[in-house]
Write a structure and sequence with these properties.
By secondary structure, the protein is mainly alpha-helical. The protein is built from six helices and no strands.
Length: 133
């Protein structure tokens, strides 16, 4: 359970922190750690996670998460695309795992093991509602 909460928190933070911090936040992050900033969006017009969830702002998303809604619930309530939410987060985490492998921060075996469980962890986390209040 603790692992799911940690993974869920990392995934959500990675997904919407990019527009909050901007490009300048990338350089101070050490390569050995997972970056939580992804400034590359498909259409260049905004945050992909907010688009997939059909959320108006990061504040709305944070508020929904804070009151204990899962990403699935948020997507369903707002007419968003839950499958796109999962695919987006899986893609971002795969890119980070690939970069960690290239940088030598993880072994090929670690990379393969983490890649194999990535989609199930993301899906489980996105379906889980965490009560933070």
């Amino acid at each position: 359970m603790k692992r799911v909460i940690i993974v869920g928190t990392v995934i959500v933070t990675m997904s919407f922190a990019g527009t909050a911090w901007g490009k300048s936040a990338i350089s101070p992050i050490p390569l050995a750690k997972w970056s939580i900033v992804n400034i590359d969006t498909k259409d260049g017009s905004g945050d992909e996670l907010l688009s997939a969830l059909n959320q108006a702002s990061e504040d709305d998303l944070v508020q929904d998460l804070y009151v204990g809604k899962s990403l699935r619930t948020i997507a369903e309530e707002n007419g968003g695309d839950f499958n796109e939410v999962v695919a987006l987060q899986v893609r971002q985490l795969r890119e980070q795992l690939d970069q960690r492998l290239v940088n030598g921060n993880i072994s090929l075996e670690q990379h393969a093991a983490q890649m194999n469980e990535l989609e199930s962890l993301v899906t489980e986390s996105a379906n889980t509602a965490y009560n933070l209040v």
